[in-house]
Amino acid sequence: MVVKKVTKSKKKPAKKVAAKSSAKKVASKKVSKIKKTTHSKVAKTRITGTVANNKSKIAPYKAKKNEKYMSAAMKRHFVAVLLLWKEHLKEEMQKTFDHLKTKGETYADPVDRASQEEEFAFELRTRDRERKLTNKIAISIEKIKQDDYGWCESCGDEIGIKRLEARPTATHCIHCKTLDEIKEKQLSG
Fold it and tell me: Could you tell me the pTM of the whole model?
């Protein structure tokens, strides 16, 4: 009787090991499938979220064969991108306004008060940059209406779709912008 129990107990772990290994294979397949979908979602997010922290759901523009640069379809695409970005910035500004309004209490402790004032100052600097960016967005939309959008202000060349996807408010092609940055570094020392 003892011998039978020993042989049975030996068989059970063998089955469990086989079951565990098949379960591991299934689990690893699921994990790799999840990783693949997660990576593709991350890649799509990186592609569609090209506009500086914009929660954009607009996919990058894919030019058709023999399509003219800054065609009507391209212009519509960039207007949509710019308007969505502007809307996102307005929402952020409203959140900051609400936050400053609700957190406007004064603390008795000078260190707490100084921390709060520093936080507010940081938020206000950020919103000031975003306000300036909103103005640039409005200028870009106006340029689209006047058919000047997408062309370099310095050399008159195409800025390029990829650069405009990365920075829709760009006014210079990559070559002119690089030269400007080099000159700025040389002047500032």
Answer: 0.65
